[in-house]
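My hope is that you will study the protein record below before we discuss the fold together.
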Amino acid sequence: MKNIYLLIFLLGNVTFSFSQTESEAKQFWNSLQNLCGKSYEGKLELPVNDKQFGEKRLVMNVKYCNESTIKIPFFVGDDKSRTWVLTYKDNRISLKHDHRHKDGSEDEITQYGGVSTNSGQKNIQIFPADEETKIRIPSASTNVWWITIDDKTFSYNLQRIGTQRIFKVVMDLTKPIENSDIPWGWKEK
């Protein structure tokens, strides 16, 4: 009889521990949520001699978070046109790029991105281009984006499969900065 009680106790604890374990996608999501309301400065690591990004101040602002959406405006110098929009649903994360003009209207090339194909890992999520991206921007149909996060850095990365070009921006999470700038076309929801 003691063995049965022991077995029931052990099974109960095993079941409880499995139900308490979060998926790696959810752990990644929670790490991003912890950055909400903060801004960080970073640098372009690749390509090395890129004049459009490499010579300008790069700032990300984890500006909006709710249970299923995180919006991260990304400023390149005075250009406040870009916002990374991440969405969590069914243990998958999607990444979309919201591009705006100064007047707030959508850029012709916007709302492209991808969805993770599995739950990824707690410190990296990979987003291959989705069908909407293929239709909107045929040349981007082989794009793969990935975001990494740990205690010290956040990185945003892009590679178009079949090319040598890799884009990588790394943000320093150890030094939050003051930033009251509003991205072009910003809406809270």
